[in-house]
UniProtKB/TrEMBL annotation:
The gene is ND4L. Belongs to the complex I subunit 4L family. Its EC number is 7.1.1.2. This is NADH-ubiquinone oxidoreductase chain 4L. InterPro entries: NADH_UbQ_OxRdtase_chain4L/K, NUOK/Mnh_C1-like. GO terms for biological process: ATP synthesis coupled electron transport. It comes from Chelus fimbriata. It is found in: Mitochondrion inner membrane; Mitochondrion membrane. One of its GO terms (molecular function) is NADH dehydrogenase (ubiquinone) activity.
Length: 98
């Protein structure tokens, strides 16, 4: 295993630990989720270069598009929750209420 692969796995692990541990604010949860997406995007973008195949080159762009949609949805939820509840604390949100 090269140091490049090890750094990708460490970045993914740190993002997953941050996502599991820092669940007090919505913005920190969204940042950890973006870290997870970026740590999986970089190896996925490097994979066609290592295999020298052009057929897999569309996959990272598709993942990046889904990541941008996820970030936009998360930020809109952040703005909506801060307007209605006054803060971005996840404990103040009750998902059972409509």
């Amino acid at each position: 295993m090269t140091t490049l692969h090890l750094s990708y796995m460490i970045a993914f692990t740190i993002s997953m630990v941050g996502f599991a541990m820092h669940r007090t604010h919505l913005i920190s949860t969204l940042l950890c989720l973006e870290g997870i997406m970026l740590s999986t995007f970089i190896p996925l973008a490097m994979w066609p270069l290592q295999l020298q195949t052009p057929s897999l080159a569309l996959t990272p762009l598709l993942m990046l598009a889904f990541s941008a949609c996820e970030a936009g949805t998360g930020l809109s939820l952040l703005v909506t929750s801060s307007r209605t509840h006054g803060s971005d604390l996840l404990q103040s949100l009750n998902l059972l209420q409509c």
